[in-house]
Structures are given as C-alpha cells and as structure tokens.
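Hi Prof. W.,

I finally got the Short-chain dehydrogenase prediction working! I wasn't sure whether to trim anything, so I left the full sequence exactly as given:
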Amino acid sequence: MSTASKPATALITGASSGIGATYAERLARRGHDLLLVARDAQRLQVLAERLGGEYGVAAEVLPADLTQKADILKVAQRLREDAGIGLLVNNAGVAMNGKLADADLEQAEAMIQLNVVALTHLAAAAAANFSAAGRGGIINLGSVVALAPEMFNAVYSATKAYVLSLTQTLAGELRGSGVQLQAVMPGVTRTEIWERSGTDASALPPSMIMEVGEMVDAALAGFDQGELVTIPSLPDAADWDAFVAARAALAPNLSHNHAAARYK
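And this is what came out:
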C-alpha cells in the first residue's frame, strides 16, 4: 500500500461513525495518514483531531454528500490526482427496510446513488491512480445479504450484490497491477445504519450481531491475508471455496448455441 516505509494515505468514506470511523482508528493505529469523507463535517473534524493526536498521523477532513453527483466527482478527482493516497475504503452506504412494492422510490434511488453509483466512481478513480503507480488497495464494503438476498430489503440486497460482483470483476481487471482488492461481507453489525433504516436490531438474536470493532479487525486480518472476499462471521473458509467452486462448475454451460434439452 506504499512505496516507502510509511503507509500510504487512506481515504475512507462514511468515516464519521460506525464502520468507517472504526476503520479510521485502526488504520491510524497502523500509521496511515487519513483523508476522511462524510457529510457531517463537525463529527469528521472531531474524529480527525482525536486520531491525529493519539497516533501522530495527519488526518484531513473532506466533507461530501455522496448522494450528490458534484460531491462524488469532487472526491473522485482527489482520488485520481493525489499520488499520496494508496488505500480506498469504500464504506459509505445506507439501508432501507420494507417491501419494494411499498417503498419510497426516491429513498431507494438515493440509496442506489450512494451504495452503487458513488462506490463505482470512487473505485474507478482509485483503480486508475493505484494501477498507474503499481501499488494500492481498494476495500469495498458489501454485506452477506449479497449471498442471501431473501434475508433483507430487495434494493439494499441488490446494491450489495453489485458491490461483490464489481469487486470480483475489478480484481480480474487489475490482476498483476500491484493493486489489491477486497470485498468485505459483514453480517449484522452494531452500527447506526439499522436505526436510520427503521430496522429494530434489538429484535434480532444477540448471537447474530457483531460488534463493529471485532468486524473491522477481522476484515483487516482478511486483507492482510490477501483474501478477495472476507466474511467475518464465516468459521470455515472451505465453505466459501466450495461456493466458488460450485459457481465455476456452471461456467461451461452458461452459454451455448442451443437451449437445453429440458426446455424443448
């Protein structure tokens, strides 16, 4: 993630609270300078001052509302042009609750803008910058609902399936470039996202809810181990390997010049 002994600057979106703020603390502890992005400039500034004081790193604040195109482009331009940035934590995201038929579609559109469109712009900018430099890392925050979409809201689950697919494809595109990709797929994590989405997390079994610090520590351990996909709750990595192998087994039969006999 760096061409020198000091780690590269990490740009973290959604950094004012929850998973993003925890990534900021853990990466500052590792010696990364920080570029913190979120809408809440006041919370960002308090976090930046605390982390800079505790860990002796530079912590810059870049307020941005990533549901707004102009702000997306502002952050993307910084990612493309700043050679000091070598790690992107694409964390900003929101959730919503309820059935699609009953949904506020303006709210759904804003969620797609943040969870998909903004994430894509920033991943593209980081890919261009980092691959040109021959180093760097892109961490995209997904969710286990990408693998079990029936568990939660349709649009949210679909946005997280997009995050997984984008990360897997981008990893192939950047193979050999020196840029490391990771999709982090948490289960239920104790953050503000549930309250904001109107979901009562307290109604879930406590055994399903992971504390945010433990989740981020596991995700960073997976990154250190070179995992493309990290599922912090998954006890046996062989289960994921079996899932990948089953998907690969479909590949020879996904596209033929005639329909399968069972459809005739």
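The longest helix spans residues 105-133. Does that look reasonable to you?

Thanks,
D.
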